[in-house]
# Entry
Amino acid sequence: MAFQKVSEIIKEAPAFATLTDLAAAQLGGKVLYATDDFFAEKENLIAAGRGIFIADKFTDRGKWMDGWESRRKRTPGHDWCVLQLAAPGIIEGFDIDTHFFLGNHPPHASIEAAYITDVSSVTDWDTVQWTEILGKNPLDAGSQNFYASNSTDAWTHVRLHIYPDGGVARLRVYGVVQKDWTGVTAETDLASALNGGQAIACNDMFFSSMSNLIMPGRGINMGDGWETKRNRTPNNRDWVIIRLGHPGIIREAIVDTAHFKGNYPDRCSIEGCLATNDESVMNDEVEWKTLLPEQKLSADNIHTFASELAAHSAVSHVRLNIFPDGGVSRLRLIGIPSAV
# Structure
């Protein structure tokens, strides 16, 4: 029989893959436990990107792999690991990515979820009340494996089962943050992904994703921000739209150009609108009002605007405009949630 090379199967990402990755380390997700991570550490599962492959890199345990990989199981059973989501959320779907795991990927996987209020009280993960939200499904080698969740409840933890063993490069848990806004009256970052904010559209994100804008902390490098390509059109404007975690009044806007030194935007402005759904915003069926008139920006700097903000009523969506192009690391919109 002739040797048949295994290669990646390219797949179109489903709509749920545009949602927030609730398990991402960048957002605050954690991998708490694995039955076995002999060849490659469990923490790699939630790292940024799809992982890399270095052909001649080995450790004292074998081939170095950028993912979670257990040893070859010689006894009954299978391997699993537990992840803590960065925030409670409703899970819409998964990407069980076996990138570069070609001869050592698990043939099947399933996922359970739980809502745990005090993880420090857990001494045995098998005693947790788990609910299966993805049944046992096949995995393609070296490929993204997209599956929808069968639950509409909110969860804090997931358990990935692989059958019987092998390697997974990344696990993406796509969903919607569920924040309890009851009694929240203090100023907070209404745009933060941890508060349910989401970047829903932009005209360009050639170099790096719009979703980075609302991640926690400052960007770690130039790739950890939103950057558009160079635009040669006179008077060009690039833009990104963010749905706030809750409608509110914005008291302070912070535009951080960390690490953008030769490619920061010359100027920026911010607009807002009040809408009940994303579709009307995406179709430009709303009235945009200026919240922050055009302001000059500088390289690698935190720009705080408060007195420059125009008086306004509650907004649910904001549009950050940059002129003419370039990169912004983070956008913070500090405000008071409103009843609408």
The chain has two domains: 15-177, 188-337. The chain has a mean pLDDT of 97. The longest strand covers residues 79-97.
